[in-house]
Amino acid sequence: MSRRTARLTAALALVGVTALAACSTGAGGSGDPVEDGPDVLRVLAGSEVKDLEPMLRQSGVKVRISYTGTLDGAEQVARGDADGSYDAIWFSSNRYLSLIDGAKGRLSTETRIMSSPVLLGLRTAKVKELGWEGKPVSWEQIATAARQGRFTFGMSNPASSNSGFSALVGVAAALSDAGEALSPEQVTAVTPKLKEFFSAQRLTSGSSGWLAEAYARDGGVDGLVNYESVLLGVKGLSLVYPSDGVVTADYPLTLLASAATDKRELYGRLTAWLRTPDTQRRIMTTTHRRPAVPEVRPGPEFGTAPLLELPFPNRRTTADGLITAYLDEARVPSRALFVLDTSGSMQGDRIENLRRALVTLTGADTSASGTFSRFRDRENVIMIPFSGSVGQPRSFILPEGNPRPVLDEIRAYAQGLRTEGGTAIFEGLRTAYQQAAATAGDGRYTSVVLMTDGENTDGISYDDFAAFYRALPEGQRRTRTFVVLFGDSDVEEMRQIATLTGGAVFDARGGSLAAAFKEIRGYQ
């Protein structure tokens, strides 16, 4: 094996490529993708259930699964766009979907397959230090310790991931002492407490799985807020079961009302198999999720603490208001550095796609997922264009309460991007880390997005950048780079960058650059 091939193999092992369009894969009688057909159940699913796919191959039902984000999937179903393309949906929860006008009419039978509450997992030594070992602990106590800086944690983005949204709902409901569904007034009243709680958050993610992988790879925080099933798979964590309640994912495999009769029969066969005691035991032992049938007793790993279910918002406006409060007020503000290829090869459609992708993040996309992925209040956005050399970085700071004037400035900047010259990828990337270092210590969560359509032709090499990066102080090395494959990107080098910095790769070569940027926003 050549040194080049070995490096690529290592990179592929460490960094997954996130598909931007709904990614289809199969669960038939073999490991090969399942082709569509009248005997195939087509399922639109959240990435949380991907770990069940190998098991489905033994169900006797051919299943073709397409993965999408929870919010995007919910909107797709509610608009009717899933009708005719899919027969069923499988998200970790239908709660948000049920709040969208017209969505319930799109759904038919729901079958609960398993469950997993969203909890706090902390290093065992930290649990002992806090005096929580073997004792009931409330969200109020957890929030107090967070406010006092006694621990740090990672949590997925509520606008991108159901685990993050469930955690946000649970914390808000517990801290507001809501006996019933949260109201907009309660969201407003509890936001200062949420800000105190989330002052301890130091790691974010667009998915619960990537969050756990990032923690396992280099730590950097004392624990995670995540599904119980994920936390049980992370070595060295002790789980904290809040005594005042949790929000639980129930993973309902749901038949669409538009499904044809023969697909309904396939759905019935699959759900019946999934709920057999043998299958439920396998789900429990292999994925750490709780069984959904009374014939199967939960294993000892789930403990004996009673789980009180906290109330969920009963209006979409309240749920969306809670997410907005988190993004604009409660969470630690972020710094997002965009390293953008404006070389000559970007001329034409490519530079126009880049302009359009950036404009999308200024609020041009009015869907729920687009609204939540725009640049947020209090955020520092830094644009770093590069061609044969690095252009002048441009910093934008969005004010709290009225970001529109600065969003318009970013829009004008994006529309003014021009192309010329060569491609100094690693000069641009080094400049981004120098910019991040110059402002280190201000408490912001910092990340880098690298977008290029070609190979490095000018300036320093990958090896030069890697040496520079490894020489940075440990705290600055926690700034991750999220790489977008576009055009004729050098796939190997791009994956090496993501691996080196602990980031991830997003493939926009066959899809939309705007969709790639939107998805990355869940990690910033």
Distance from first to last alpha carbon:
36 Å
Q: What is the number of strand segments?
A: 20
Count of DSSP-assigned helices: 20
- Global outline: globular
Point out poorly predicted stretches.
1-22
Structure summarized in a few sentences:
The protein is of the alpha/beta class and 524 residues long. The chain has helices spanning 3-14, 53-56, 70-79, 95-99, 124-130, 139-147, 162-175, 184-198, 208-218, 228-231, 261-274, 277-287, 316-330, 349-364, 368-373, 404-415, 425-438, 462-470, 491-501, 513-520, and strands spanning 17-19, 23-27, 40-46, 62-68, 88-90, 107-112, 114-123, 153-156, 201-205, 223-227, 237-240, 248-249, 252-256, 290-291, 334-341, 380-386, 394-397, 445-452, 480-485, 504-507.
Could you characterize what this model shows?
The structure is a single chain. The N terminus is likely disordered. Helices cover 40% and strands 20% of the residues. The protein is an alpha/beta fold and 524 residues long. The two termini are 36 Å apart. The longest helix is centred in the last third of the chain and has 16 residues. It has 20 helices and 20 strands.
How does the SSE layout of this entry go?
Blueprint: H1 3-14, E1 17-19, E2 23-27, E3 40-46, H2 53-56, E4 62-68, H3 70-79, E5 88-90, H4 95-99, E6 107-112, E7 114-123, H5 124-130, H6 139-147, E8 153-156, H7 162-175, H8 184-198, E9 201-205, H9 208-218, E10 223-227, H10 228-231, E11 237-240, E12 248-249, E13 252-256, H11 261-274, H12 277-287, E14 290-291, H13 316-330, E15 334-341, H14 349-364, H15 368-373, E16 380-386, E17 394-397, H16 404-415, H17 425-438, E18 445-452, H18 462-470, E19 480-485, H19 491-501, E20 504-507, H20 513-520
Parallel strand pairs: 1-20, 3-4, 3-5, 8-9, 8-10, 15-16, 15-18, 18-19, 19-20
Antiparallel strand pairs: 2-4, 5-13, 6-13, 7-10, 7-11, 7-12, 7-14, 16-17
